[in-house]
Structure prediction request, 272 residues.
Amino acid sequence: MRSLKKRLRIHLFNLSDLLLTLTFKKMQYPSLNALLIQVATWFISLAFLASFSIEIELIELVFCQGVFAAIASYFLRMAVWWFFIHLFFAPAIFIALTFNLPPLGYLTAFVLFILIYGSIHRTQVPLYPSSKAVADVITTLFPKNKAFSLIDLGSGGGKLLTSLSTLNLNGNFYGVEAAILPFLASRVRGLFSQSNCSFSWGNFWQYNLSSYDIVYAYLSPAPMNKLWKKALQEMRPGSILISNSFIVPDVPPTESIAINDFNNSVLYIWKI
Prediction:
């Protein structure tokens, strides 16, 4: 029996190692990373608990998996919110099923998800907040002695633009956000910011980019080709496109700047 347990533990660890290796290779796809981490850490948890006990309780397995998944997301340098998603994902499902939560609870969770993330299934653009370090670096790219305009495509809660507008009074800053709750948060934040900062609710694909000197986007790998085509068609010569963390396939950036923040962000810059 002990030999069987040892072989099983080795196989489980080998399988989880394979899955985590695939995760390293797919780091530009956060949703796929999350799925691989979830699957791998179930095997890690089984192997870990099997080292201490023949019989494994489901509650032990669930909470152990949550801890291992959160730790994996941290060491794989995923965005900080993924740590908490991984930590509570399996335990939340376990608690919901164990205590037989009413259907209204699931409906409420679904509605909140839609309000926060919008039509992520269609846009393939999750909510990625930009760090203060990103704002500090972007500021160094602005012209110092003349007016300019910047649009943030998918401005979230508006923290980046309100920070930039405070530091750069010669600029005009515009944010477009499709998800309702982040947009409302940005409007509230905008009430207490400089008058050179404004936010709109809508689909940024419907906005013409020809009026802006700088276009900033923190999207996902999926729409980058489409964004590049839109930039070439609409942005005027001399303007710049800045993408946080995601490149345009087969289009080398004019410049790239690595940033020491919680996401290990990289700003990719193309001069049109």
